[in-house]
Structure formats: structure tokens, C-alpha cells
Amino acid sequence: MGFVSVLTFAQRLVAERLQPGEPAIDGTAGGGVDTLFLARASGPRGTVYAFDVQEEALARTKERLRGQPDLARVELLARSHHEMEEAVDASHHGKVAAVMFNLGYLPGADSGIITLPETTLPALDAACRLLRPGGILTAVLYPGHAGGDVEASAVEQWAGSLNGAELEAVTYRFLNRQGPAPYLIAVGKR
Ligand SMILES: C[S@@+](CC[C@H](N)C(=O)[O-])C[C@H]1O[C@@H](n2cnc3c(N)ncnc32)[C@H](O)[C@@H]1O
Questions:
Q1: Fewer beta carbons within 10 Å, N or C terminal of the chain?
Q2: Whose CA is nearest to atom 23 of ligand 1?
Q3: Residue 95 falls within a domain, yes or no?
Q4: Whose CA is nearest to atom 27 of ligand 1?
Q5: Measuring from atom 4 of ligand 1, which residue has the nearest CA?
Q6: Which domain holds residue 183?
Q7: Is residue 1 part of a domain?
């Protein structure tokens, strides 16, 4: 049996921690795969905040959620993820169980709209502040596209410089795939 993909591994790490009713955040809604996953895990008593700067992404996410039973309340936010502290209700600050980022661009949409270190790094910092103790942040990185390599290095450097007494950082990556494969960085709040 092969190892699961980085996207599946990210969801597994989150599933171990996110309890029904807890707030969660999708920092890059895109096609809504992670938003739906979070909304199912958080359930009808929960809230999920989903950010994207692209209307096309929010429309796809809305479509993916349509008609699905027993989901959390999902707030679709046409804002950059670096503004998440302003957008998330004050009652959820320090209570968020999981924040997921799937960086890069949305396949089949405007490939010129990519996540950028200038906003990604402040968003990661904000996410760490919003997490509850025991909460988790996941970031899937794509070094294979123009700009993605720079962003992946910046995120790796950011994670490596976190204070390990407060925030543990780990990675999940395939070491012998052809070309630059996507990989995961996860940060757990102690
Ligand atoms: C790889 S896609 C996300 C895929 C998504 N997780 C899914 O399940 O389909 C990356 C997304 O990040 C969005 N994005 C780019 N810059 C952003 C920003 N500053 N804030 C929030 N989203 C951003 C893009 O519009 C794109 O939809």
C-alpha cells in the first residue's frame, strides 16, 4: 500500500483534533474540498470560515456545499487570508481547532492568481494566534510552479523559526518523486 497524498494526510491530522462544534478555518477555499471536509467534521453546531480572493473559487465552494447534510455554518469570505483575525468572530479567537491552507493557484481558473509570501506569512502568523491549545495548522506547498518554490521556502523558513515550546512544526513529503512534488507543513499549538 502506498503512502496517502499530502492533501489526505493534512485532513487526517486535522480529523484527529477537530471536534464537533469547534470553529475551523479554510485559508484557501479554492474548489471547496477542504471547506466541505471541515464543515462535516465541525458539524451543525460548528462554524467554518472559508477565505478566497477569487469569486470563482467561492462560487465553486458554495456549489460543493449545496445540499450536503449536517454541515457547520459556513461563512464564505471574499477576503485575503491575512485578514482572518478581523473576519473571525472575537468569540472564536483562541478557540479555533484547525486552519487549513492549500497554497498555489486554483486549477482551471485564473492561474495568475497565486498565493504570495507577502500575505501567506502574515496569514500563518494570524492562524497561530487564533488556534486553541492543541489546535493545528496545515499548509500544502507547491514548489513546482513559478513563485511556488519561493513561497515554499519562505513557509519552511517561517515554520523552522517558530518557538518549539509553543508551536511544534513537522513536515510530510515524498523524497524520491520525479520533479518538485507538493508537500505538507503542519504546526501544532501546545
Ligand atoms: C490550490 S487553491 C486551493 C484549493 C482548495 N483547498 C480546494 O480544496 O480545492 C489556492 C487558492 O488560494 C486562493 N488565494 C490566493 N491568494 C489568496 C489570499 N491572499 N487569500 C485567500 N485565498 C487566496 C486562490 O484564489 C486559490 O483559489
A1: N
A2: 52
A3: yes
A4: 30
A5: 30
A6: 6-189
A7: no
- Which residues have CB under 6 Å of ligand 1? 28, 30-34, 51-54, 57, 80-81, 102, 104-106, 113, 115, 119
Which residues does residue 26 pair with via DSSP β-bridges, in sequence order?
A: 50, 100
Q: How far is the CA of 67 from the centre of ligand 1 (A)?
A: 23
Which 8-state DSSP code applies to residue 103? -
**Of 41, 39, 42, nearest in space to 22 by CA:** 42
Look up the CATH number of the domain holding residue 85: 3.40.50.150
Number of domains making up the chain: 1
Strand 131-141 relative to strand 183-189, pairing: antiparallel
> Rounded to the nearest 5°, which phi and psi values hold at 152?
-60, -45
> Is 30 inside a domain boundary?
yes
For the whole prediction, is pTM greater than 0.90?
A: yes
**Ligand 1 atom nearest to 31, measured from its CA:** 9
Ligand 1 atom closest to Cα of residue 30 = 27
Q: Is residue 129 part of a domain?
A: yes
pLDDT in tens, the chain (190 residues): 999 999 999 999 999 999 999 999 999 999 999 999 999 999 999 999 999 999 999 999 999 999 999 999 999 999 999 999 999 999 999 999 999 999 999 999 998 999 999 999 999 999 999 999 999 999 999 999 999 999 999 999 999 999 999 999 999 999 999 989 999 999 999 9
Give which of 137, 19, 21, 146 is closest to 73, Cα–Cα.
Answer: 21
